[in-house]
Amino acid sequence: MEDFNKMYMSMQIAGHEEALDLHAAFAKTGADNFQRFAGTMTASVKDRLTKAKQIESALPR
Questions:
Q1: Is 61 a domain residue?
Q2: Is the residue at 50 inside a domain?
Q3: Is residue 9 part of a domain?
Q4: How far is CA 60 from CA 4, 5, 19, 46, in A?
Q5: Considering its fold, how many domains does the chain have in total?
Q6: How far is CA 51 from each of CA 3, 25, 31, 56, rounded to the nearest angstrom?
Q7: Strand positions, DSSP E, the chain
Q8: Which candidate in 6, 27, 47, 55 could, as Cys together with 38 as Cys, close a disulfide (CB 3.0–4.6 Å)?
Q9: Is residue 35 in some structural domain?
Q10: pLDDT, tens digit, 9 for 90 and up, residues 32-53
């Protein structure tokens, strides 16, 4: 089960990092509606990424 948890959190972190990159790019260069949405979502994605990293670091090694 520990291997699953580590792999799952690793995938969550990678997914959130990718989402953060996409939102940041749309916030800078997207159409107006996309810029606003991406701008508001960036903070949420950052928070979730931070939490995912905290959970990963708390897993048994």
A1: no
A2: yes
A3: yes
A4: 12, 10, 27, 24
A5: 1
A6: 19, 22, 30, 9
A7: none
A8: 27
A9: yes
A10: 888 888 888 999 999 999 999 9
